[in-house]
């Protein structure tokens, strides 16, 4: 569906102009440009690198400090076995279709989405529907009229089917997508060729540790596994108390099949992930849920999507959790905290929604999953995944390694427990089982009560049993009554052991930064459009612009004083002493999103203060250097806003020189 994407000032968004600003002001560029650039890899220039640092600072404060999370830094290089156990080796894949004639590789869901969306656009053009608000542009008008002539009108049933298909695309398996491609004659849009059926391709970058090749490894595709494998240390650090949470900020790598949409789909990206461990018997309640209960969120649920809808309902998180729309309090608490974080950094609340995962989209072990999606000129994009991963990860790693990854908690009252146990006579079994001894021991421990009871009966009857054992030849071992016995034992239990469940908010920092830049971008309509990046003062990459009225060495002492004071206040600043007019200097720095400009003029030399200009309103106030600096520091630390500064400091009465 065509999204009428507008800037914060309500203007049609001009992506070409926006991208040109990003290039001109060196926010980012494709990596290794002199060698022809590599798709899906980007370098950040000073404005974006600083913006990222500011956003990360707020993330650390909002999550790690405020929620008392345990920050971790885990290795990016990950042994094969870890990711085999987690399921990534077998399942971390996307479906791709190959164009057999050109060799082009296309991601199956993107291919379907692009073709179906373009058919729907063509249908709207054929119906003469207005697609974007750029109708006034005569060139575009002409282009549209031409497109409308060539456009293909769909019948109502097909149109409905296409709309439903797009709303439910995330729910399709590889086979489903193959069937859709055949049914709707979906071809490679660039060549017009038919494509081969979807095949699954793993997205991890494989490598090896050491030179022998004996230790295969991957660059991690997420930071989570390192956090799970640090579980015991985390539990020790939190004095054995749950709930507890770890957090990690670091790079992840995915060999995306068709990187596109700039920073939205790249092959190397910064993630900020939280693993919140909770006792499942607590009903996954959150101690601070009451403080967020009445917060309203835009929630697009699974049912609405299944019916082809895309409009979220506004509900309080209290209502959503009470009605079980959101599975539990902890998940609900994090959805609210994610939204508050987004608002804190300056994301437009009208361009944010939470979308529930469809049944097939969710990992098989997940209890519930919601994505925080942000609207950009590319449509709604997942920027944070918030999943309830249940006990899956800790359980599989415990099973694979034999490491205890549970919580042990004293019971209020001892409980009498009757259970079947398998007793292995190690003296006798050692020489017979040899290297398999450990594996058999682990397998016997893992047998269910039911299976152990059956084994005891079989032993009595036949004197031997067959037990499944992972990692041995044939996958099973025959054991006779000489070396193993199955008996029912009664004991008093004083401790409870359980595997915590994990709620995981997972942030893609690059996607958030890109959306944020689009949300902050607008143009000042004057003789010609001038672009502005309205970054909040708290996150702006550079906080202050220092502009002497003219190139004149007499300004040097006041500038030096200002610089020292800004430095003392730990505020980043830029001095623009170039010969061009003040207005031009302001406007070219508006493109960098510098929120405040301090102008030093001849009156400043007589101790009559300096002028402070605010980027978005272009309004100015004048006061003593100390008062202006106090105001700037307060606004950059988020302690005061421009409205209140304007009330307490006199407006600048002189000529406001804007280009
Ligand atoms: N290729 C990528 N480029 C940039 N950010 C990404 C990429 N893949 C994932 N992310 C970010 O990491 C977050 C968590 O990853 P997750 O595994 O949930 O994503 P995903 O469901 O695989 O994303 P998608 O379906 O868009 O590929 C996402 O919400 C997103 O912000």
From TrEMBL:
BP GO annotations: mitochondrial glycyl-tRNA aminoacylation
Cellular compartment(s): Cytoplasm
Main localization, broad class: cytoplasm
CDD domains xref list: GlyRS-like_core
Domain Aminoacyl-transfer RNA synthetases class-II family profile: 204-537
EC number: 6.1.1.14
Family: Belongs to the class-II aminoacyl-tRNA synthetase family.
Subunit structure: Homodimer.
Name of protein: glycine--tRNA ligase
Lineage of the species this protein comes from: Eukaryota, Fungi, Dikarya, Ascomycota, Pezizomycotina
Gene: GRS1
